[in-house]
Structures
1.
Amino acid sequence: AQKITQTQPGMFVQEKEAVTLDCTYDTSDPSYGLFWYKQPSSGEMIFLIYQGSYDQQNATEGRYSLNFQKARKSANLVISASQLGDSAMYFCAMRELGNTPLVFGKGTRLSVIA
Amino acid sequence: KAGVTQTPRYLIKTRGQQVTLSCSPISGHRSVSWYQQTPGQGLQFLFEYFSETQRNKGNFPGRFSGRQFSNSRSEMNVSTLELGDSALYLCASSFGTGDSYEQYFGPGTRLTVT
């Protein structure tokens, strides 16, 4: 069963607008971590934001925030005030407690339009 | 602080040959993970090392192997290369291993098998 689902293969957003990238996950572990990464065309994966399953508040890092809805098992990434440099692939990932690897979704390609 | 470095960045090999890829983690990081990224399969976990011990292994054939040295640098080896091994190989390091440690990725090694 797929553990991370990103249902939007591609999205467009106007510069300076906000955009939400969807991510749902599947786990029966009470303790897990959720991560978002950005991959520009250069190939390098850039860590953006982390949310722990026990965190009471949604994580924020600059223009990035994570809309964490535990009961719905969703961890959507919100990018505010989009910039042209935000055009990239975005991956949602999860790691469960214990000796388990980081598991990635298929990604969403975001294109920011001037 | 220097980021994760991977060498070489690009590699062209012939079917049947073997290849060794190298990864130097961020200073102080003891965990190194390897991933294979292809357009068809996305990001797939290969293995994770922590303090020279393999902690986790993905679902790849035995032709894929790795190791970690006492200075936390890691190498992965692919023997008897096949056309399907053409991919971007990403290395990631983290301070620890577990659901709350973010992984920082290197720029990747793009392997082409002809």
2.
Amino acid sequence: QIHLQESGPGLVKPSETLSLTCSVSGGSVTSDYWSWIRQAPGKGLEWMGYIYYSGTSRYHPSLKSRVTISVDTAKNQVSLHLTSVTPADTALYFCARDLGVGGAGSLDIWGQGTMVIVSS
Amino acid sequence: DIQVTQSPSSLSASVGDRVTITCRASQPVGSYLAWYQQKPGKVPKLLIHSAYTLQSGAPSRFIGGGSGTDFTLTISSLQPEDVATYFCLTYNTPPWTFGQGTKVEFK
């Protein structure tokens, strides 16, 4: 059974870079696509982007200039980097297995999420 | 980008009621539509993918339908544990797009 666990700093200063890690256990990060999704307090869900271990990636156009998702196969982890953050980036950040690419399913397994607050 | 309009934004119903939530996509997405349930403070849970395929472990009272641009999630007999917010998600072409959510409460 695949299990995902997000981790990273809970507080980031405005204009700095937000960096989060998603550790994959019970499976290999090379087996599937992986997405990051965020949810601002009291708001809906926003898909940020996905990656495959080969490097294939797609990002939400609204974030494209600031977001990078990468895979570390040695550590079995997926990472998210979001530059030039503002308070609007305050949210609960989730990683998820993405079976939507290729139409085999959807975002079926999610981590518990990690809360990030952007504040000076 | 595909825009998704989900309705209603909230609804109140009684135990045993049949409840229907709708998502409309701004352009055809085939059957690449999923439904999620999110309880307060919890992680979204996949209920339906590929428009009507019940995810393993999801109760059979959750029924997905539609194709193209118009989709529905029906709860055939509302149960107390179904109080939650429901989101649709299109994944035809990136960016994947979530609906705004429907909060289901009891009368």
